[in-house]
Amino acid sequence: MKRLRLERWSGQLLSARTRPCCLRQWKQVEAFGNRRLQSSQAASKNNFEDLEADLTPNPNHPSPYPAAALRSAKLAALHARLSLPQKLPLQTLARTLVDPSADPSPDFNNASLALVGGPIMSYYVAEWLTCHYPRLPMTVLFAATYAYNGPPTLTRIGKEWGVETAAYPGSEVDPGLLQFNKVTPGSPLPSLGASTRPDNRDWFRRGISSRNVYDDEFGDQIKFPENASVSNPQPTETAYSNFVKAVVGSIYLHAGRNAAKAFVQDHILSRHLDISSLFRFQHPVRELARLCQREEFEYPVARILSETGRHSRHPVFVVGIFSGNEKLGEGAAPNLLEARLRASVVALKSWYMYSPGNSTRVPSETEEVGTKPWEPVHIDLGEIIH
Amino acid sequence: CVGAFILQCKRLDFHYCDWAGSSKGMNIFLRTALTKFAAANPQIEMVVSPRPNKHPVIIGHYINGREKRYKAELLRDASGEKLKKVTKPVKSINESVRGVWSPYHGGGIVIRV
């Protein structure tokens, strides 16, 4: 299979940027040598100090000059704080902080970088989850991916990196601030229009399987806003998530695939998520019975393991669910029914949260040089549908 | 796996005064040691500004949004949390290895007369 050469397609993202209206900036670009920052050897030294450049803010420009990125203390501190590779220049990092709502020009905002980095990040998260927890139900898998790289988490990550927002975008803003058009307090959030699904009728049930085909990576409907304009005000979550995706994209473009994968692992996949809290069962006793029937275990029977006594002041019953002589799960509760319920829930969670271990290989490891031949990971039959 | 390390101190504001005598040490620090300190800590944004007729102060801004006033090295090494007395040796999100004792498991309480 031919390998996708993303570096070649994205060359236009990193070519020299100009605004056709400004001749002075064209001269600055020529000072940079009009070089394509595409190969990983380029931009190794950040000291093109263009001292003659006039960096007085131009009110016609919605975002700061790229050369102003070299003067910004916030940006240099951010670059060092994230230990970004030296191949990633400060000018690109400044570009990742400009949201399309601040600057509609695609050469100067982070839309294209986010378009490259977003799928890369969500791919690594999805493959990690699928390989480490092969039996997760689809809804829980959607929730877990949302917890790892959904907009609220990416907002938190951006804030933990010390990135603050500019009050209003403009060319005089410090390049180290996140610039976007803020939604004014009290005004409604940008309204979303109808979904793009072909089965968008009242009588169609939006099932889980169809979400894999039509919806986004979190199982949510893709809706295009009614008055779609790039400079519409955006919520803070959207701006921060675009920024984080753009950082991943810029690392991929300047420093390569391995650096981007390491970055996603260090900052996103290293976060702790309690997956057992994402489950919600409707009828766990019935579901466990169907699971045992499918896997040809013996029919599950609930037995009391211990109790404080039926007439005690605060009774506690510890009930275990047994399949033959093996205990599948155990739960404690003030009454017998709830104890059996909790035991079934524990048994189901222990089935669905099976993990082959931390050393499970992921498919993207085969892209590295000198790895062992790929052995298939565990692919599960699926969740219980009852 | 352990994630990336991010220094919690993101900005240090150095305020000095040219007239007040209490600012003498701060002025010497800014002239001699600041460049080395800033080069050694590239993750921290250093801002130097005069604050006339006031005592010199260093204000540290942290990622959790809080600010602190203290000495430069201590500010750099601190996080934004309030000072707390640490009594336990280990702080972890993992559960206990041997499990918490429960009266309903194990031998139970045996009363011998």
Characterise the protein shown here:
The complex is a heterodimer of chains A (386) and B (113). Chain A has twelve helices and five strands. In chain A, strands 3-4-5 form a three-stranded antiparallel β-sheet. Chain A has a two-stranded antiparallel sheet with strand order 1-2. Residues 21-48 of chain A have low confidence and may be disordered. By secondary structure, chain A is mostly helical. Chain B has 113 residues and is of the alpha+beta class. Chain B is 19% helix and 20% strand. Chain B has a four-stranded mixed β-sheet with strand order 2-1-3-4. The N and C termini of chain B lie far apart (53 Å). The mean pLDDT of chain B is 85.
Summarize the structure.
The complex is a heterodimer of chains A (386) and B (113). With 386 residues, chain A is mostly helical.
Stretches of chain B where pLDDT falls below 50 for ≥5 residues? none
Q: How many alpha or pi helices of chain A?
A: 12
General form of chain A? elongated
* Element pattern of chain B in H and E: EHHEEEH
User: Structural class from helices and strands of chain B?
Assistant: alpha+beta
Query: How large, in whole angstroms, is the Cα Rg of chain A?
Result: 26 Å
Helix fraction of chain B by DSSP (H/I, runs of at least 4): 10-25%
N- to C-terminal separation of chain A? Answer: 40 Å
Mean pLDDT of chain B: 85
* Largest sheet geometry of chain A: 3 strands, antiparallel
Strand and helix order of chain A: HHHHHHHEHEHHHEEEH
Strand content range of chain B: 15-25%
The dominant shape of chain B is elongated
Helix content of chain A: 25-40%
The strands making up the biggest β-sheet of chain B line up spatially as: 2-1-3-4
Distance between the termini of chain B: 53 Å
Low-confidence stretches of chain A: 21-48
Secondary structure layout plus pairing:
The complex is a heterodimer of chains A (386) and B (113).
Chain A: H1 6-9, H2 23-31, H3 73-81, H4 90-96, H5 111-132, H6 138-149, H7 151-160, E1 192-195, H8 208-214, E2 223-225, H9 236-255, H10 257-269, H11 284-294, E3 300-307, E4 317-323, E5 326-333, H12 336-352
Antiparallel strand pairs in A: 1-2, 3-4, 4-5
Helix pairs in contact in A: 5-6, 5-9, 5-10, 6-7, 7-9, 9-10, 11-12
Chain B: E1 9-16, H1 24-32, H2 34-40, E2 45-50, E3 57-62, E4 67-69, H3 72-77
Parallel strand pairs in B: 1-2
Antiparallel strand pairs in B: 1-3, 3-4
